[in-house]
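Subject: sequence -> structure tokens, single chain

Hey, anyone have a minute? Need the predicted structure for the following. Not urgent.
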Amino acid sequence: MKQLTRFSIAIVLISALYSCNKTEKLSGTITTVGSGSDKITVAVVSGTPYEMGNQLGGLLKEDIDSCLNNFISYAQKEAPEIYSNENLDLAWKTNAPFIDQRIIEEMKGMAAGSGISLDLIQRAHMVPVISTYACSGVAVWGEASQNGHTYQIRNLDFTMGAGLQDHPLLVIYRPKQGTPSLNVTFAGYLGSHTGMNANHIVFGEKGESPRSEFPFNIEGTHFSFLFRSMMYDAKSLEEVLNTIKNTTLIKRYFLFFSDGNKETQAGAKVLVSSPDSVKYTIWKDNDPNDNLAPNILPNTIYYTMDNPKAFDLLNKYHGNFDDQKMIELSRAVADEGGNLLDVVYDATTLELWVAYANGPEDASKQSYVHISMNDYLK
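Reply:
Had a minute. Here:
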């Protein structure tokens, strides 16, 4: 009887220890990188989509509440009719059927974890869906870089009046099912304007939708939700491009993708033009039909806010690009007075250098803070 009792106690203790470890694993963690005005929050979450959203909500409830409320308040002050609650709710109703269910579950989890209204979260995610904005994207790889690595930049040129830069956030997702990824974002925003997954695939975008086409047809997938889906699933550049071909996309924009795997490294630029009969066009390096030809180069794709300046630097440093030269290029093509966020990726080593705007001062004027994704995947 004693042996049975000791055995039972041992089983209880082991079960309790396992339960404790499991809870710790699923509780999520936050830390920071950088210092002073360049300090950036890093959140690491694990589990199912709902659990990961719930962890984010619990860890960052005050930051999320401030960020999303300020974002919507600013939008509604700037354009009350366009961004009214009624219009944003209608946009959600129209667009939700095209959003990956995993992301919707993340939103539900975040609402539960933070106590913030799910309606507010959904409305905030619709603001970019119905907005216009400009940006820059460049990728170089192989012989275009000094070390044979794949580098990509993504400049987000968007309003700084909403104070999004006051809530910088890098989210490391370690899903129960799917590929780990890093989303460069703002507190409470679960879509992705740029990011990278552990399969060495980088995602970036440049807005191209003119106000003359407003209101936009949003019966399709917005790139910010598409990126998150592909961050879960994509194992190669070819998989990314096949997904693009088989997805109903909306609006006009350029998408930039790069693959940092040594065996398959490459980049591609995609023009999405859903209002037209030709819905998308894909260019890879040195394509004579590229929209920027004849200013094209091997192992290079680009489209920026200043293409002549970009080409000059791409030509100058071709064969010698490293992270610092990519940062120089990122700064050179930033939209002065409206540069919210800049990222330089090394897709080969899963590293990145990130700069957020500081108040009204452009991201390009700040330090680019280094982070290695591998440090959070161990």
